[in-house]
């Protein structure tokens, strides 16, 4: 292999006036370049006399450069030494020729690149609609050989559209705009590496129905159209297919930074869109598959990422993408990320973020209005947001389509005149179409599901019905056993426990009864309260506005009563001792006339009646009588002569007592047994 450094070799190529290009390439080519030249003419210098390019910014160098391109053939390299190459017609490539220069400014205006570039002839002299046009290569097979052993490569080129911003002198003979690079329909396997395109009156890169593209550090700056546009000129449903864009840059263009139709197997890594008048990234049509990693925007006129996908797409994944200060021309409606269109199936934002801000000079208003905005997509759509930080001047989320699914780790904030107000809650959202089951499931690893928190599939009509909440219990085989807890969405009714279709406990927040227990188990217990200690309370009740409960049942069964409001409970009764119940702080008072004490009469009762039989004892059998019982006798109906004399003549505790009267007394007497407390 030759020891000549590549930089020295290129210097020789650049300065070799008067030498034959083919001979020069043969003289200085290394072994690997010689091998690569087997199918072409090796390295050809456009400044060689055989081709005659001058690079003086005056002569029309298009014929000379095109002659070198045609001579290079498949696998050859056409080298453009530093110079200003004025073209009156497009350069056209179809075979696998590498068009190579040594320039690639990231910010062409800042670097004031005036020495090395390709440009169209000004004053309407340029006859074409793009400075470089790539045509479809000869096709030998429908798929495997459609790129004809490798397509064209553009490396290290600077394409300059005009001197001043959007200078109309750079229009073509037809009076229309000029693109920097045009890839015609059917073009495949094109590589662009370190190419800068700026100030064109058309688009920077215009690729229609192209596929298998590899772009690395391609910069499109200050065009009158899109920075990059990938469309479907043939109307066949094509767009951008099998493409990789790495560290590409689109800045200051009058339309979108990146305009992409129907992406399919597309990957964008570390690309940037800045200061474009419309959207930073504009993705439309059927999104078959696309991944964006580490891409970012800054100060787009409208949305940072505008994703408008049509039905039939599969997924669009954004990882670590940043939308910064977008919406500078639409501050009231703009969004860092906008998901709209007919469908957004599988849109996933992982670790993405938006931030608000003004222009670099701190002028203008803060933007964007929202971190994420969605439209009313179809009910099967979802936008999954995992992690990240989203800030807007109006709100972090404007989920008009109700399709955002927020997972753990998402931070949100609203930028106001006093600063950012952060929403510090951690929200996990499960979103699904109306009428479908939405579950959070708990499984045993290696086995089946055990529990599920569920929004049911009950039909929704828009009146608050359907989509009830349920806790579902599953058996060991994963089948649903029952729903121990359900919550009715329309009424707020909570049902606890189910056996078949019969509810156990129904709790109604706004209906009667408030609490309804249906016990379906024979000999079952209704309610049971277990307190931690004797100070626990089993039940209490109050009226709205009360500060003190009106009624309470302590864990030992003691009941207390009060008038409500802020007055404490003043009446208590409960267990006083063994086999004793009563009140320690009040008497039994009949508050209404005609109300008072009633005692059940009958066998072994403490109250009843008897008829006197003169001086003969009348025995009343009752186990209620004790040795200390007070037995009260009152005449209910006098009878006989004399009448109204009665007294207790004897008692047998636990068995009976006897009553006598005067001779001839047959009065009816009521008796009452009362024991001292």
Automatic annotation (TrEMBL):
PROSITE patterns: TAT. InterPro entries: K1-lyase_C, Pectin_lyas_fold, Pectin_lyase_fold/virulence, RHGA/B-epi-like_pectate_lyase, TAT_signal. The keyword Hydrolase does not apply. Residues 1-31 form the signal peptide. Residues 43-104 form the Rhamnogalacturonase A/B/Epimerase-like pectate lyase domain. The keyword Repressor does not apply. Residues 604-674 form the K1 capsule-specific polysaccharide lyase C-terminal domain. Keywords: Signal. Pfam families: K1-lyase_C, Pect-lyase_RHGA_epim. This is Pectate lyase superfamily protein domain-containing protein. The lineage of its organism: Bacteria, Bacillati, Actinomycetota, Actinomycetes, Kitasatosporales.
């Amino acid at each position: 292999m030759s020891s000549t450094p590549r930089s020295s070799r290129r210097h020789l190529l650049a300065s070799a006036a008067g030498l034959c290009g083919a001979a020069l390439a043969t003289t200085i080519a290394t072994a690997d370049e010689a091998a690569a030249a087997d199918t072409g003419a090796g390295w050809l210098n456009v400044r060689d006399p055989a081709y005659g390019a001058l690079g003086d910014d005056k002569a029309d160098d298009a014929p000379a450069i095109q002659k070198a391109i045609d001579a290079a053939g498949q696998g050859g390299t056409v080298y453009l030494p530093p110079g200003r190459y004025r073209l009156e017609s497009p350069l056209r490539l179809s075979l696998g020729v590498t068009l190579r220069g040594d320039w690639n400014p990231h910010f062409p205006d800042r670097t004031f690149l005036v020495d090395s570039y390709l440009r169209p002839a000004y004053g309407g002299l340029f006859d074409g609609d793009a400075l470089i046009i790539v045509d479809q290569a000869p096709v030998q097979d429908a798929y495997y050989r459609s790129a004809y052993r490798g397509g064209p490569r553009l490396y290290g080129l600077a394409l300059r559209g005009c001197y001043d911003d959007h200078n109309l002198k750079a229009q073509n003979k037809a009076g229309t705009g000029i693109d920097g690079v045009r890839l015609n329909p059917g073009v495949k396997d094109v590589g662009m590496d370190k190419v800068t395109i700026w100030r064109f009156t058309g688009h920077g890169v215009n690729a229609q129905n192209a596929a298998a593209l590899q772009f690395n550090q391609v910069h499109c700056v200050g065009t009158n159209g899109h920075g990059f546009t990938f469309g479907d000129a043939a109307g066949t449903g094509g767009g951008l297919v099998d493409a990789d864009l790495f560290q590409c840059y689109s800045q200051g263009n009058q339309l979108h930074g990146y305009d992409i139709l129907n992406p399919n197997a597309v990957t964008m890594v570390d690309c940037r869109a800045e200061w474009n008048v419309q959207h930073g990234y504009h993705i439309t049509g059927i999104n078959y598959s696309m991944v964006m990693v580490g891409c970012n925007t800054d100060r787009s006129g409208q949305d940072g990422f505008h994703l408008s996908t049509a039905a039939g797409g599969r997924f669009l994944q954004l990882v670590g993408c940043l939308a910064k200060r977008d919406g500078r021309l639409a501050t009231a409606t703009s969004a860092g990320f906008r998901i709209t269109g007919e469908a957004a199936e599988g849109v996933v934002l992982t670790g993405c973020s938006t931030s608000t801000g003004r222009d670099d000079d701190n002028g203008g208003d803060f933007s964007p209005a929202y971190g994420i905005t969605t439209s009313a997509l179809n009910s099967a759509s979802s936008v999954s947001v995992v992690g990240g930080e989203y800030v807007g001047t109006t709100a972090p989320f404007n989920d008009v389509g109700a399709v955002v699914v927020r997972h753990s780790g998402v931070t949100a904030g609203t930028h106001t005149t006093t600063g950012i107000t952060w929403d510090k809650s951690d929200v996990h959202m499960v979103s699904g179409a109306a009428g479908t089951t939405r579950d959070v499931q708990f499984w045993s690893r290696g086995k089946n599901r055990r529990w599920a928190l569920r929004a049911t599939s009950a039909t929704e009509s828009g009146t608050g019905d359907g989509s009830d909440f349920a806790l579902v219990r599953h058996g060991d085989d994963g089948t649903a056993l029952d729903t121990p807890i359900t919550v009715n969405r329309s009424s707020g009714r909570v049902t606890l426990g189910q056996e078949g279709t019969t509810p156990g406990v129904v709790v109604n927040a706004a209906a009667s009864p408030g609490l309804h227990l249906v016990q379906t188990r024979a000999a079952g217990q209704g309610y049971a309260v277990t307190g931690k200690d004797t100070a626990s309370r089993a039940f209490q009740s109050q009226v709205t506005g009360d500060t003190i409960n009106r009624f309470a049942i302590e864990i030992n069964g003691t009941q207390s009563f009060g008038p409500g409001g802020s007055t404490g409970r003043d009446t208590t009764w409960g267990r006083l001792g063994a086999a004793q119940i009563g009140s320690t702080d009040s008497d039994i008072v009949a508050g209404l006339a005609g109300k008072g004490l009633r005692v059940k009469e009958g066998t072994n009762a403490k109250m009843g009646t008897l008829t006197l039989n003169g001086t003969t004892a009348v025995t009343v059998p009752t186990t209620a009588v004790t040795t200390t019982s007070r037995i009260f006798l009152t005449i209910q109906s006098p009878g006989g002569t004399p009448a109204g004399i009665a007294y207790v003549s004897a008692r047998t505790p636990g068995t009976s007592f006897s009553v006598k009267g005067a001779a001839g007394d047959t009065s009816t007497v009521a008796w009452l047994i009362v024991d001292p407390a």
